[in-house]
Amino acid sequence: MSTEKTSTPAEDHVVENPEAAAAAVTVVDPRLLVREQGLKGYWNEFKRKMKAGDLGSIPVVAGLLIIWAIFTSLNSNFLTAGNFSNMSVAMVGTGMIAVGIVFVLLLGEIDLSVGSVSGVAGAAFAVMSVTHGMNEVLAMVLAILTGTAAGAIHGFVFARIGVPAFAVTLAGLLFWQGFMLQILGDDGTINLDSEGIVVKLTSYYFTDIAAAYGLAIVATVVYFLSAFFDSRRREAAGVPSRPLNEIIVRTVLLAVLAFAAAIVFNEHRGLPLALVIFLGFLVLTDFVLRRTSYGRKVFALGGSVEASRRAGINVVAVRISVFAIAGTFAAIGGLFVASNIASANQGAGTGEFLMNVIAAAVIGGTSLFGGRGRTWDALLGVMVIISITYGLALEGIASPVQYMITGGVLLATVVIDAVTRKTQKTAGRA
Amino acid sequence: MSATPVLALRGVSKRFGAVQALTDVELEVHAGEVVALVGDNGAGKSTLVKTIAGVHPIDEGNIEWEGKGVQINKPHDAQALGIATVYQDLALCDNIDVVGNLYLGRELRRRGVLDEVEMERRSRDLLDTLSIRIPSVRIPVASLSGGQRQVVAIARSMLGEPKLVILDEPTAALGVEQTAQVLDLVERLRERGHAVILISHNMADVKAVADKVAVLRLGRNNGVFEVKSTSQEEIISAITGATDNAVTRRAARTNGEIKK
Lengths: 430, 260
What we know:
The complex is a heterodimer of chains A (430) and B (260).
Chain A: H1 9-16, H2 18-24, H3 38-51, H4 58-74, H5 81-106, H6 114-131, H7 136-161, H8 165-184, E1 189-191, H9 197-203, E2 205-206, H10 209-237, H11 244-267, E3 271-272, H12 273-291, H13 293-303, H14 305-310, H15 315-341, E4 343-345, H16 353-363, H17 376-395, H18 399-426
Helix pairs in contact in A: 4-17, 5-11, 5-12, 5-15, 5-16, 5-17, 6-7, 6-8, 6-15, 7-8, 7-15, 9-15, 10-11, 12-13, 13-15, 16-17, 16-18, 17-18
Chain B: E1 7-16, E2 19-29, E3 34-38, H1 45-53, E4 60-65, E5 68-70, H2 75-81, E6 83-86, H3 98-102, E7 109-110, E8 113-114, H4 116-129, H5 146-158, E9 164-168, H6 176-191, E10 195-199, H7 203-209, E11 212-217, E12 220-226, H8 232-240, H9 246-255
Parallel strand pairs in B: 3-10, 3-11, 6-9, 9-10
Antiparallel strand pairs in B: 1-2, 1-4, 4-5, 7-8, 11-12
C-alpha cells in the first residue's frame, strides 16, 4: 500500500480553482451529488439511495405485491373486488390504532396499552348507548375521550414521573382490560343497534359510483395543485424546487392508483365510508407531522431529547400529548372494531390484536429507534397484515400458521429496519 | 462600552448532591465584549454556562440582566431574555435536516403551517453571510462532519439576534480553516454589539479574540484579567492555582526565562 496521501477529486477542485471555490459558496457545494436530468438521473438517484439504505416504502410495497401474487396463485378468490373491498373495511380498526402507534414510535417509545384501550372504548360506547340509552353521538365522543384520557394518564406517568413507557403501558394493558371486563358485566357481550351510527361506520357504502371517482379526482387535483404551487413558491424564493416533469410523473402515479382503487370499489358495493374516514385521518395526521411545528417537535424528540430540551421544546407536554393521541386513535380504532362485529365483547383488543397493531406500524416502515416514519406507514403495514389474514382464511389455514407467518413478516421488517439504520449510519444519513 | 453589564452574576452557587459545583461565582459581560471563561477540567465552566442558559437553575445568588434582577429557570427564560448558547456536545437532532435544526423551537409559520420555503431561503442567506459551506441545507445533520455541525450550531444561535452568545468550546473539534472562521465569527459578533462568553482550553484562541479572561478554579472565581495586559503564563497559573507548577517550570525550561 502506498504511503502517499491521495487526494479526492473534490479537494483538487477546490485547491486548483480558488475563484471557483469562492463562487461555489453561493452556488452549490461541488461535493454535493446533484441528480442528473431525465430518466437516467432518476435511476442513478434511485441506485444511490438503495446503496445508502434509504429504502423508504419500497420493501413494504414490494412485500405487499409478493403477498398478493402468492395468494392469487393459491386462490382465485383473493384477487376479487369483493375481497379487496372487505379487506379495506376490516383493516380500518387496526389501521387507526396503528396511526397512534406511529406517533409513539416516532418518539422512540412504545405503547402496549392501545389494544386494551380500544376494547374499553368499544365497551364504554356499548354500555352508554345500548344499556343506558344515551345519545349515540354523545356516547361516541365520550368513548373517544376515554381513550384520550387513558393515553394522557400513561403519558403523564411516563413523562412527568419518569417511569419507562414500556412499564407504564404494560400496567395500562392489564388495567384497561380489567376495566373493560368490569363495565361489560356478567353478560360479556353487548350487541350494538344495527341501524346505529357506529355500526354504519363500517357497513355504509357510497353506492353512487360518482363518489369513488369523485374522491379519486379530488385527491389527484389537490395533490397536483399543492405540489405545483409549492414548487412555484420555491422558485420565486430562489430555493431548489421540484421540476414540473417530476410533479407530473408523481401525479400520474397517484391518479393511476386512485382510479384503480375506485374501479375496484365500484365493482363491489361502492366506496366504503370506513376507508374514507381512515384516509381522512391519514391526510390530517401526515399534515400535522410534516407541516406543523408540533410535528417538528415530535420528530425532534425522536432525534435527540437533549437537543429538543435545549431548543426550548416542552418535552413533557409533547410526550403527554403524543400518548394522548395514541389513546385517542386507540379509542377510534376500538369503535371501528366494535362496528365490524356489531357488538362489544370480552375479547375486544386482547390476544394478538395489540401485536398486529404494532406490527402494522413497524412493517409499514416506521423505525423502532424513533425519529423516522410517516402515518402512511400505518396504511401500508395494515394492508400487509390484513392481506395475510384474509389470504390464509380463504385457504382455510388455521390461526397457528397465521401467527407464524405474521411473526416471520414482522421479524423480516425489523431486520430491514435495523440493517437500514446501520447502512444509513455508514452512509451518514441516520 | 456601556456601564451596565448585559449579564452579571452575583454570588452564584450550584450544588449537585454532594458536589459543590459552583461557589459564589461573580461574572460580568458587557455589550460588544468577548469574555473568555477558562479553567481546568471540572472547574465548573460548563455548569456555569448551563445555569445561565437555564438548563440548571441556580441554588443561591442573583442573575442581573441589563441591570435588573431576573430568574432563569428554564431554557425558554434564557431564550426570551436574548441568550443563545452553543454547547460543547452539539445540540442538534441528527434525523432533521439543516433548515429544521436551525429553526428548531422557533419555526417560521405562515397561516399556522410551517413556512419551509422562507426558512430555507433565510437559512441559505444566513449560511452565506457567515461564509459557512455545507453541501445542502436539506440533508439530515447526520451526514455532516463534526466541523460542519459546529458551524451549523453556531449559525443556529445567531438566528434569534441574541444579545448574549455563549460558545462552549466552539473550536475544539474544528480544522484550521474552520477554527479561523469561528474566530472571525466571534469578532463579527463583537462588532455587531453582541456580548460573547467564550469557553476555551485553547490559549491561542483566547488571546486572539477575547477582551477579558475570567478564570474558574474548583468552582470559584480565580481572577479576571485584561487580555492585552496579561501574559499567557499568568492566566495559566490562575487556572492551575499556583505560580510554580509543572506548566510554568516547563515554560521556564523551554524559554530560558521566568515571567512573574
